[in-house]
Design brief:
Structural class: alpha/beta
Number of domains: 2
Protein name: LarA-like N-terminal domain-containing protein
Shape: globular
Largest sheet: 6 strands, mixed
Strand order of the largest sheet: 3-2-1-6-9-10
Number of strands: 19
Number of helices: 15
Helix content: 25-40%
Pfam family, one: Lar_N
Strand content: 15-25%
Radius of gyration: 21 Å
CATH class of the largest domain: Alpha Beta
CATH architecture of the largest domain: 3-Layer(aba) Sandwich
GO molecular function, one term: lactate racemase activity
CATH superfamily of the largest domain: LarA, N-terminal domain
């Protein structure tokens, strides 16, 4: 697809009520493939002369803050340009770890959460968001859309919740996704229960919102589609294209999948996408190997909690809820997503459907303590796994964004 990025952005920004106003541009961090330098320059060119201010907020969720050097590379800005081309533009990391960051915009009552979640959860949710979202006249969300393990497809209002939100929305939305399971929700088209919750939270934010939703080609990382409008409208259009570009269908499951995780994932918290995106095509009793020698931590942010709970299937937590409910639900959700679907009962114990093995810089002892398999990455040559599909072996050379599905599994191409 040949996309005229400049023309689409300038046209979309021309309809934006931004003259003389303060605009906050909300973008993802470095864990998403997107030509952000190109997008940022076109957005700035379209708005800088019109607005009173154009600042940038990086939607970290609970990821680690980006350094100044990382931000420069992320936005494609040479340092001296901050005093010339981009003079006056300020860039902020979302401070998820600072309570003073947040302001409440309302409470979604338990009865409404029960309706939104199809009866899976019934808890009130205090919707807190980075207070910067209320200090500007317009929020401009810009980011890519991919199949996603919690919400179905990423993007749109997800850059607000969990992108710049408080912990309560993060925990409830992610645990709802875990109850549904990544296996069941990832790449599901349309508005899922988690998407309904996120959109409901976003509706409480009074600042006008606009969105540039991008679909990135898996072949070359270039833009395959770009859509502007409200977060809901732009996301829906982008998700439809993402379903065509980011889901690869296969005819039969594989006994082994080698997921080679790229450097943009710096811990297992993010690298676990190498499991989420291939789980649907792993045969019962099969194995996913996450190959990432550069990764040495389970989570820089949530490592202590993961060390306490380990990795387990959903029912391990659900059937022992009194024991685990005080842990952050978002971390419990991550744990279940990496483990995949499975069963648990006190008599027979835990029975995951598949095995998950880490070939990373994390030691065998730590893997055992976290309840995941271990393999020495030095014993693996990923190239030797190529071309073995007929043997029931799949190599995924850049794992984490392309979703693999069985052709006959009920989700249509």
């Amino acid at each position: 697809m040949d996309v005229d990025v400049a023309a689409i952005i300038h046209k979309g920004m021309a309809s934006l009520d931004a003259d003389g106003k303060r605009v906050l541009l909300i973008v993802p961090d470095g864990t998403r493939t997107v030509p952000l330098p190109l997008l940022f320059r076109h957005i700035h060119a379209a708005l800088a002369s019109r607005v009173a201010a154009l600042d940038v907020l990086i939607a970290l969720g609970t990821h680690q803050p980006m350094t100044t050097a990382q931000i420069d590379r992320h936005l494609g800005v040479v340092p001296k340009e901050w005093e010339t081309t981009f003079r006056g533009v300020r860039v902020f990391n979302h401070r998820w770890d600072d309570p003073d960051t947040f302001v409440s915009v309302g409470v979604i009552p338990a009865s409404e959460i029960e309706t939104l979640s199809n009866g899976m959860l019934a808890v009130p949710v205090d919707v807190q968001i980075n207070r910067m979202a209320l200090e500007y006249d317009c929020l401009l969300i810009c980011g890519p859309v991919f199949p996603h393990e919690v919400v179905g497809f990423s993007g749109g209002n997800k850059y607000l919740f969990p992108g710049i939100s408080g912990r309560e929305v993060i925990d409830v939305s992610h645990w709802l996704g875990a109850l549904i399971t990544s296996y069941a929700i990832i790449g599901v088209p349309g508005v899922t229960p988690v998407r309904r919750l996120i959109d409901r939270a976003a509706a409480l934010v009074p600042t006008p919102k606009h969105c540039i939703a991008v679909v990135v080609s898996p072949e070359n990382g270039q833009i395959g589609g770009i859509f502007t409008g409200s977060p809901e409208e732009a996301w829906q259009a982008a998700a439809r294209l993402s379903a065509q570009m980011h889901i690869r269908y296969v005819d039969r499951p594989f006994q082994q999948v080698m997921s080679v995780v790229p450097p943009m994932y710096r811990d297992m918290w993010t690298a676990a996408k190498g499991m989420y995106k291939v789980e649907p095509v792993v045969a019962d009793g099969g194995e996913v190997i996450i190959y990432a020698p550069h990764i040495t931590e389970f989570s820089v942010t949530h490592g202590a909690t993961l060390a306490a709970i380990g990795y387990h299937v959903r029912d391990y937590f659900v059937r022992q809820w009194d024991r685990f409910q005080h842990y952050p639900w978002g971390v419990l959700a991550h744990s279940t997503h990496l483990s995949g679907v499975g069963e648990y009962d006190p008599l027979h114990g835990e029975r995951p459907r598949i095995r998950v093995t880490l070939a990373t810089g994390i030691s065998a002892e730590r893997c055992v303590a976290h309840n995941v398999g271990y393999r020495d990455p030095a014993t693996i040559d990923p190239a030797a796994w190529s071309g073995r599909e007929a043997e029931g072996v799949l190599l995924v050379p850049k794992a984490g964004e392309m979703l693999y599905r069985l052709r006959h599994a009920g989700v249509q191409e």
